[in-house]
Amino acid sequence: MGVTRRGPLPGDGDPAYDVVVVGAGVVGAAIARALARHPLRVALVDAADDVGDGTSKANTAILHTGFDAVPGTLEARLVREGHRLLDAYARQTGIPVEPLGALLVAWDEQQRAALPRLAQKAERNGHRTTRLLSAPELALREPHLGAGALAALEVPGESVICPWTTTLAYATQAVRSGVDLHLSCRVEEVRPGDPYHRLVTRRGVLGARHLVNACGLHADGFDALLGRADFTVTPRRGQLVVFDKFARDLVRHILLPVPGPLGKGVLVSPTVYGNVMLGPTAEDLDDKTATGTTAEGLAGLREQGGRILPALLDEEVTAVYAGLRAATGQEDYRIAAHPALRYVTVGGIRSTGLTASLAIADHVLGLLADCGLDPGPERPLAPVRMPNLGESFPRPYRDAGLIARNAEFGAIVCHCERVTRGEIRAAFTSTIPPAGPDGLRRRTRARGGRCQGHFCGAELRALSEEYGEGTR
Amino acid sequence: MTRTVDVLVVGAGPAGLAAAAGLAAAGAGRVEVLERETDAGGVPRHCVRPGFGSDALGRPLDGPAYARRAVRAASRAGATVRTGVSATGWAAPLTLDVTAPTGLERIRARAVVLATGARERPRSARLVPGSRPAGVLTTGELQRTVARFGARAGLAGRRAVVVGGDPVARHAVRTLREAGAVVAAVVCERPGTATALGVGGAFATPVPVLSGTVVTELTGRGRLTGVAVRAGDGRTAVLRCDTVVFTGDWIPDHELVRLLGVPLAPGTRGPVTDGDFRTAEPGVFAVGNLLHGGEPARRAAAEGRAVVGAVLARLAGRPWPAGGVPVATEGPLRWVTPGLLGPAPVPGTSEAVSLPPPVPAPPVPLLVRPERRLVRPVLTVRQGDVLLGRERLAATLVPWRSVRLGPWWTDGVDGAGGPVVVAAEE
Ligand SMILES: Cc1cc2nc3c(=O)[nH]c(=O)nc-3n(C[C@H](O)[C@H](O)[C@H](O)COP(=O)(O)OP(=O)(O)OC[C@H]3O[C@@H](n4cnc5c(N)ncnc54)[C@H](O)[C@@H]3O)c2cc1C
Ligand SMILES: Cc1cc2nc3c(=O)[nH]c(=O)nc-3n(C[C@H](O)[C@H](O)[C@H](O)COP(=O)(O)OP(=O)(O)OC[C@H]3O[C@@H](n4cnc5c(N)ncnc54)[C@H](O)[C@@H]3O)c2cc1C
């Protein structure tokens, strides 16, 4: 069956699934992938028409070490484990990741005084390789920093990663290993039952013996469908500015702010695509759909970015966007098993879910067992190798052998990001093809560069019509 | 694996093609033009309407006809025009890495002419806040889409807003209408007297022109639903639409220039060149909209023709002048090209040489772009205390058109002196 995006759901509740994971963000996709190791009937469903279309597509794309987590929390443990697991997985499957290391830069005495405490906290979280850098050392490491940087704490291991490929890799591997992926399939009602819960969607009913809530911002709303009211999700918006690739040479590490009484500050970080990212803001909102940017937000970011890296503001802006963190008023995740309901809630995955995803998945498998799921024996997953979107790794347009075998990999369509016709076609014939231009961009980078479609938009539209059936 | 040619031209738009035609006709040897698109001709290929001068019989030329003529002229003169070939970076001085369906190549040239054109800044580069819906594009994408798919209804939405007050905004309005969209308004930041549209946009079916107005937000998820605007007097409104076209606001497509590391002119963001289109990198020239953003095709082509002499001199082993006097603007002027008035080259080595002062810089024309509308301004060109030229212009200058100052304005520039400043006063 594989991937469905429209039409009635197969079977209309029968045959039922052993496990249905609701929410195909990075967390839900990781859980589905972990379940796919076992001989279970598993479905992954999402309201959106693509995987990773919620918070998972709009974050700062850092693979955290967890050095600054609250020691002793579940989040601290899962981030630390997740970092190790995803780092290895990324290398194995071709998800671009670059271990640039982070520098927490102190701009005033108070911040400088905080650095040794942060080093101690890192130690309590199991990270013993941090190091304090003096102002001259810092200037050598980051010659373009603005005036007034006093010192820094170096955190090796902090990395940048491609968030889009990560979610897509999990979901692809899950589908190839037998998981059904139902998209454009919002679960609107849950009728708890034994042995099967019935999940009502616009496309029909799904039967589920066990249920996982990986609904991100809507985890509280989904809990309510099962009569639970354990927490409320408050969206905390983070606006981000992505600068042109010409800015990439201005910065070598992930430049993190030192958290202080005046807020968390913003980071400046390279991206795996070769851009430089500035942000995020932190704004508590009520509206879970408020993923827009604001004039004040962008102006504030530019002001802060200009102090950190003055030359940044001379470069063009390639993209601006915003993501919503799922804050719950608790400095930890809200992951809970409800054995009586054969139900696991994976909520409050705030600002570290990308990093922790694989560890969360393993943890949830354990909780499902507590809910009575017998996963059966383990078997190997179908292998995946993802197309590389990273600038530091070989891209098709520079691959003579590939072009010799298939001339379409020598035909550049998106000139800013150097995406070839071959890559566009491959995306449309992949396990989970894109449903539109945004999905195509997340799979190939096409239209994601400095011209934003000025040169390539028309041609991409034509290719999408040619290759893609489900494409608008 | 490195192939050598005499001249490599990057970009087969009006500028690159004119340069190639001139060079091939002048016997420059092997002249090769690289064009990354599947057809040569540059931006005019997508401008399906008159506005590109006329042919030998005086009949008006549309963009595609103009483009075909330019490609033909270059080929007939003996230049090789290759399409579907992207120059992706520099492997070594004067050596470009190239990707094409036929494979990778490394091409070394004795001279390189960059003619990669310009683009309109997209919404994100203009920092327009709001959501990120579909239906947000530039005139370039709009024109290409209509040229690619034909003017079928719904291609560019049903109701559109156009942002910008340059002549290109009129093209956007026309193209949208051809594609069956209603143009709800043209929104431009400049005050009423300073847009290229006039009352009602000077169309048979008028379009509301909201001048002195800025776009404050885009709304809608999935598809655009509206454009929020704020007028000069602080009043706000939301214009309902499913398409918004951002026009003008050019930025040179200067990737190869940046990769080379040569200086950019702050006003244009194009490479600084001297009056003969030499960049700071010996052997590398730049012409066309790469230098200054949106100018008419004939200007780009004229620059292509004008570079020929200096390229031939380079091929003949004449030295690459170094130093030169920077040119800057003052007052309500946005930019000036060239950014450098070079000393006349002297015979000798073929790499950059610094010349002993004082040397008179050869007089060259200047291209100046006003920042706003200037009624009969007084223009001055000075170098330090020396007034080189001063004149009250008879015309009114507008911010969407450049003025050319003839070479006499720069006659007498001291090649070893301080910066030359072009200023305007009303
Ligand atoms: C600004 C910002 C910066 C961040 N930076 C980082 C970082 O650098 N590193 C890091 O590790 N993490 C970071 N994060 C956190 C990370 O992005 C999130 O923790 C992670 O994406 C959460 O994934 P998720 O799968 O839980 O949620 P989501 O990606 O939101 O997925 C939830 C999915 O559930 C679906 N859904 C909801 N309700 C239903 C329903 N009823 N039926 C069907 N489907 C439904 C939604 O459509 C959605 O696709 C950041 C977050 C933000 C906002
Ligand atoms: C909407 C619109 C309407 C216009 N209307 C008119 C009009 O009515 N009359 C008029 O006279 N002018 C008009 N113009 C302006 C005219 O099109 C330009 O002046 C002219 O095209 C500039 O020529 P150029 O050669 O500098 O650049 P371009 O025409 O932009 O050509 C540059 C070429 O370089 C290629 N290129 C870029 N980088 C690379 C690379 N790395 N490798 C290989 N190839 C590369 C590009 O694909 C392109 O074909 C209009 C422009 C626009 C956008």
UniProtKB/TrEMBL annotation, chain A:
FAD dependent oxidoreductase domain residues: 18-364
Pfam family, one: DAO
Domain of life, source organism: Bacteria
All copies of domain BFD-like [2Fe-2S]-binding, residue ranges: 412-463
SUPFAM superfamilies: FAD-linked reductases, C-terminal domain, FAD/NAD(P)-binding domain
Official protein name in the record: Ferredoxin
Organism of origin: Streptomyces viridochromogenes
Lineage: Bacteria, Bacillati, Actinomycetota, Actinomycetes, Kitasatosporales
Automatic annotation (TrEMBL), chain B:
MF annotations from Gene Ontology: oxidoreductase activity
Domain of life assignment: Bacteria
Gene3D superfamilies linked to this entry: FAD/NAD(P)-binding domain
Keywords from the UniProt entry: Oxidoreductase
Residues spanning the membrane: none
Location of the FAD/NAD(P)-binding domain: 6-304
Stored PANTHER family: ANAEROBIC GLYCEROL-3-PHOSPHATE DEHYDROGENASE SUBUNIT B
Name of this chain's protein: Oxidoreductase
